[in-house]
Design a protein that fits this description.
about 100 residues; mainly alpha; 4 helices; about 80% helix; elongated
């Protein structure tokens, strides 16, 4: 079972590519992963706050007049289902501890 030199070269290239991807992922994880995760969580919090302000009527918290809520409706419709789930779900001590850390 002999392999051609081209086959060996391709195999080494694949291994080098895999090692390169692993090193890139390792460096990403050590440098910016936490920052990216924090910013995504912060964006989600701000997005949910925006939906609460504009469509708080669904939970009984009228803040904006209905006219402005209706003007924003096309932008909010994709977010409403996740927002309702997040606002109405029960929270326990582990959720609060995760938010602090």
């Amino acid at each position: 079972m002999t392999t051609t030199p081209a086959g060996r070269i391709n195999r080494w290239r694949e291994r080098a590519r895999a090692v390169g991807e692993w090193v890139a992922g390792f460096i990403y994880g050590m440098t910016v992963f936490e920052i990216v995760r924090h910013f995504r969580r912060q964006r989600a919090d701000l997005e949910h706050l925006f939906v609460l302000i504009s469509f708080g009527d669904l939970l009984g918290v009228p803040i904006l007049p209905p006219y402005y809520s209706l003007r924003l409706l096309p932008y909010i419709v994709p977010l409403i289902q996740k927002w309702k789930y997040r606002m109405l779900r029960e929270r326990d001590l582990t959720d609060l501890a995760a938010d602090l850390g």
